Structures are given as structure tokens and as C-alpha cells.
Amino acid sequence: MSMINQAVIFAGGRGERLRPLTDHLPKPMAPVNGVPFLDYLIKTLEDAGIRKILFLLGYRAETIVNRYGKQLTSGIQVEYSIGTPEDLTGRRLLNAYPYLDDHFLLLYGDNYWPIERNKMTALFEDRKALALTTVFRNKNGTAEYGFGNNVEVRNDALVIEYDKKRISKKLNGVDIGYFILDKKILDPQMPGNISFEETILASLAHEQKLWAHVTDRQYYYITSMADLKNFEQVAKREGFVSIHMKEL
């Protein structure tokens, strides 16, 4: 990504639906074929040319800090913004405001998708966007909630509705994260324990300031034990690679 060097990863939630695995681990550290899920996710960032990672942590933060330290073997620099397990996504992001690049890639620590960086960057620049999300077209109902979509994207790539309740009949895709954001959209003075999705994202969509890179490339998620097992099988079948770690 020519203009994007930093990836910011939400990795602070409890992952209740992966218990008892997450009684002792943060959700993104759930093991996949012997290594943490995050190792696979970070490899996609490395492949996309990312040079810096900022983790937004809360629950069992030390597990992630202890594994990744300050620099990966590939040379990627790693930073951490640590809150409490109760912090919602918007609060985590605003608390990390001083560490954010002017433009950055924001993603969830429990979704895996091979990043289409050139297409995303080109659309972001072409629309002179302040915020871009990635929307899976979900033609075959292979999203997290089957055929349940949560976004309506216009033909020109503008998001015109963001509906977490998935009620509208016009919804035509699933928001999978993988945002490119301009730091200017964030107000570091905004108070309260806010959700990024319900407050910041919904507001951007309402103001017609949210664009979407629409993709048919399948994404994967580790919401439940069944999803985790599915990703484990897919990773083997598709040859998904994890990052190379120094031997401890």
C-alpha cells in the first residue's frame, strides 16, 4: 500500500463464544495448526507491505505483548495501546489516537482475508475518501451469518446504509472490516465508552462519508469453536502461511 504503512488491530475483547479456550487467552491468540490465529493474520499484513503494527489491547494483553515484542523477524515494528477488557472498540481506537499515522489500515483481530491492497488504495485515493471499508459481496451466503448482510453499497461504491440488525431488504454485502481511515475522522475528545461500529462508522455512513471496496474473495472468522476448526481446515487446504517467529 503506497500510502499505508501502519495496521491497527482490535485485539482486546474477551471472546466469550470461544470459551473455555479464551478463559486463558485473548481470542486472536486461539491456536490454529499449532500457532496463534494472529500469526496468520500478521502474515497477510506483511504480504501487503505493512511496516508497523499497533495492537489495541485489553483482555489478557500480556499474552500478545509477550509473543510479538517490539519488532518481528520481518522487521515490522510493533506498538501497543492497552486499555481494559471493558473498553469498546471506539474507546480503544480513540485512546490510541497519539499513536495513529495520518492514514492507516484498521482491522479486527478475529477476521482473516488476503488483503487486496492495490484496489483498496486506488479507490480510497480516487474518491478522495476519509474512510473506506471492505464489503464481501456474499453471493453464496458464506458470510458469518449466512445470507444475512449488514451494508448497502451504491454502484459508485458509496455506503448508504450500515445496518447491524440486518433488517433492510436492500442490504447487498457484509462489512468485514479492513478499513482505510484518515485520522481526521476521529475526535480524540469524544467522551464515553463508545463502539467504533455503532457510533463512528454508522455516523460516517449516515453522512455519506464511507466508501466500500467490494470483494468476492472469501473471508474467514473465528467467532465460535466451529468457525475456528473450519479456519484450521481451510488454512491447511489453501496453504495459508503464518509469520516466521524467532525460535524461543
List the helices and strands and how they pair.
Layout: E1 6-10, E2 31-32, E3 35-36, H1 37-47, E4 52-57, H2 61-68, E5 77-82, H3 89-95, E6 103-108, E7 111-112, H4 117-126, E8 131-136, E9 151-153, E10 159-162, E11 174-175, E12 179-182, H5 196-206, E13 210-215, E14 220-221, H6 225-238
Parallel strand pairs: 1-4, 1-6, 4-5, 8-13
Antiparallel strand pairs: 2-3, 6-12, 7-14, 8-11, 8-12, 9-10
Helix pairs in contact: 3-5
Give a structural overview.
The protein has helices at residues 37-47, 61-68, 89-95, 117-126, 196-206, 225-238, and strands at 6-10, 31-32, 35-36, 52-57, 77-82, 103-108, 111-112, 131-136, 151-153, 159-162, 174-175, 179-182, 210-215, 220-221. Helix 3 packs across helix 5. A hairpin with a 2-residue loop joins strand 2 and strand 3 (35-36). Strands 1, 4, 5, 6, 8, 11, 12 and 13 form an eight-stranded mixed β-sheet that branches. Strands 2-3 form a two-stranded antiparallel sheet. The chain has a two-stranded antiparallel sheet with strand order 7-14. The chain contains six helices and 14 strands. The protein has one domain (6-236): Spore Coat Polysaccharide Biosynthesis Protein SpsA, Chain A (Alpha-Beta Complex), CATH 3.90.550.10. The mean pLDDT is 92.
